[in-house]
Specification:
Blueprint: H1 2-9, H2 25-28, E1 37-40, H3 46-55, E2 62-65, H4 67-71, H5 73-79, E3 84-85, H6 91-95
Parallel strand pairs: 1-2, 2-3
Length: 96
């Protein structure tokens, strides 16, 4: 949500979707539309994030952040479909 606020301040439209507790999330994910997808990944939800990354529509960048990619970036890049990993708070890479 922190990065969403940074993007909104820069004039971008932001939608935050919390898939936890959504029973039909596997059907919902492929229908999402965005210019960019950002996913938070912590170790307990690594396998779910992996599945989400492959269900998201192709042709749009996927950026991962969170504790898991912070400490295990190579494993994350090897196993999850993503274009970039944001480490630390990520505000500066989004401004670039």
């Amino acid at each position: 949500m922190y990065l969403g606020a940074v993007l909104e301040k820069a004039g971008h439209d932001v939608a935050i979707i919390d898939l936890s507790g959504t029973p039909d999330w596997e059907a919902l994910v492929p229908t999402l539309e965005a210019d960019l997808f950002g996913i938070t990944c912590v170790t307990p939800n690594f396998n779910i994030v992996k599945k989400i990354s492959f269900l998201l529509p192709s042709g749009r960048p996927i950026i991962l952040g969170g504790v898991h990619p912070l400490f295990l970036p190579e494993e994350t890049l090897k196993n999850i479909r993503c274009d970039a990993i944001v480490q630390e708070r990520g505000r500066l890479p989004l401004w670039s």
